[in-house]
Amino acid sequence: MKIVKHSGSIVEFNRDKLKRSLLKSGASTEVVDSVLEAIDSQIYEGITTKKIYKLAFNLLKKSSNSHAARYNLRSAIQMLGPAGFFFEKFIARLFISEGYLAQTNLFLPGKCVGHEIDVAIKKNDYVEMIECKFHASNDAASDVKVPMYILSRFNDVKDRYHTIFTRKDKISGCWIVTNNRFTSDATAFASCSGLKLLSWDYPTNSSLRKRVDDDQLYPVTCLTTLTATEKDKLLVMDVVLAREVIDNREALEKIGLSPNRIKNVLKEASELCKYFRP
Predict the structure, then answer these.
(1) Which of 5, 123, 237, 268 could be joined to 65 by an S-S link, Cβ 3.0–4.6 Å?
(2) Which domain holds residue 29?
């Protein structure tokens, strides 16, 4: 059966691929098989991947909000836009969970010009800069021009002392992080130039998706028990992660949730952030 991707290209429906993505939500084999059976009865020639995803999400949600939330991870990260400011905060939280210090939204002087730096991180006295490339569409990819441009910015700031974590910090490394993917030329250029890349599926054993799952760093936008407006309000209050909701009932009260809804949100967040390995 042929289905239509976000880009408009037509591909063969891959049931096994869909099953793998459903299992990564944490749902049991029995639940996943039940979801697949329901989808089998509703899909048709020419259906879009967006509609298949929506079907799967709604069916998972009937079983468990937290399973649907995990399945919704990629879309939830895209909700950290539209400008990507909250995506930068999310990435800072990711590195903090791995033992780094982190600061966001910096302006640093370079040898030639000044530069806006999305995130700076530090571990063991080693300071690195992170440039975040946020995309609101699944099909967008960061091509070779991105690392070429960022390498020039890194070279302009790396030989100077900066006041970031101390009064005399030197930036010794550079990351580029995207919520989508890099082209093969981009990864080849970055590898050759000493730049570190992190995307939804790269590197294979340490991708953005894997790191989020391993550390349970799900963005608050994953939560299915909140509306889009409520999620935006929490982000503005600097509540970026689902785990930050668990011990922050006050934030949920501030955005106007009833006691019963607060109970449901806390339940979903707690289940979502339990240790999970796909």
Answers:
(1) 268
(2) 2-63
